[in-house]
Please model this.
Amino acid sequence: MSPIAELVGVSKRFPGVLALDNVSITLARGEVHALVGENGAGKSTLIKLLTGVYTPDAGEIRYAGRPVSFRRPLDAQAAGISTIYQEVNLLPRMSVASNLYLGREPRGRFGLIDHRRMYADAAALLSQYGIDVDVRAPLQSLGLGAQQMVALARAVSVDARVVIMDEPTSSLEPREVDTLFRVVRDLRGQGVAIMYVSHRLDELYRICDRVTVLRDGRVVHTGPLAELDRLRLVSLMLGRDVAEVRRHGLTRFSESHTAAAGEPVLRVRDLTRRHVLSGVSFDVRPGEVTGLGGLLGSGRSETAKAIVGALPVERGEVTVAGRRLRRLSPAAAIRAGISLLPEDRKAEGIIPELSVRENIVLAAMPRLSRVGVVSRAQQDRVVDLFMKRLRIKAASPDQKVSELSGGNQQKVLLARWLCLNPKVLLLDEPTRGIDVGAKAEVQQLIDDLAQEGLAVVLISSDLEELVEGADRIVVLHAGAVVDELAGDDVSESHLMAAVAHDGEAPE
Model:
């Protein structure tokens, strides 16, 4: 297979950080090439060099056999390089059709946009991906999975010669994942080169031909994926011996937690919102990790948001350490000692233009202030403590948080809420979109927090993570609790059976 895009001896440096060091990689026509590595290994920087966001400090980028210098993303797009990002990178308030054809709208008489034709073309295009939505509706009215499929449809409908997929399945249902893989195979058959970035090993072995492993900004392996077993791949990513990976496994949860005896620190009773939640009730004790299981749309995230008052409910009570919250609101939840790490860190979490320091201390400002003034020394103590404890990799606390890898951004968010010393921590997909190394660190931290007596609610689409990380699992379906697993019943087989519940939710 002939190459279409190459990075040859490319290096990229940021203040205090050598992000890429003499990296070479070749993307061939008709090949799916996996790019893997821990968060901070250099994957995002490599993608941004190839797509014109950054320019290399050394080395050469070659495209279609000749050296190129993309000075902006539009240059790369015009050359035939399309990118699908983990966080949907479209315009949420514009219509679905406008997002699909942005910059290439069909024109009619006098050069005006032919909306009727655009809507018809958009509906026909999306139907190829099994998406049946109102193309006139704002993109933000769709769920995350449907938005991701719209981004996919846009990326592959522009006659791309190279398609870069950055964690493309992170928000997709299994049916949508199957559709994505069908599209990938079709593109491969058409001679398109695909760079596939994912932390999900099952996906890599299902769809990818070759793999390049990055570690600390360097290429440590390139070759056919079929020649690497999973343990060897993980050991290359982590820089650890295969025997060590086999001994510890792919998660860092301990075999069990010892929940403190006594009264629950969190009591949730009868949370109800029409068509969303139906009488959700459960308890969490100090030192206990309680999982919320269920398919996407089952009410897991909605339950977490209702507990902290971010989703209004028609009825229901939340009690923390014996005190009922009189009013469910985010401010009341924080005062009571409840912190929520949201699923969508880009839209609901990090503030990209602020520094690591500012993002960490944001929620703690009222507690750190004296007469409205917050000393830099107090900030430094808090930031230094949590950057060390969570092993946040950054050039300095003053580096923009948007420049960090996804895993380190997730740790910054965790630090923000942990510095409030919460009694209850709600974690919604805490390891979504991060690599196995950062994932293991976050899992180890959850374990440590539970051992210290924190009450933890863990929401995860990863069955293995939920089973290994939770003491009990409350299973939701259609916004209602349909089962609760504890003790020996906390297993993948029991959880899958409970998740497959097809009964009607109670009124």
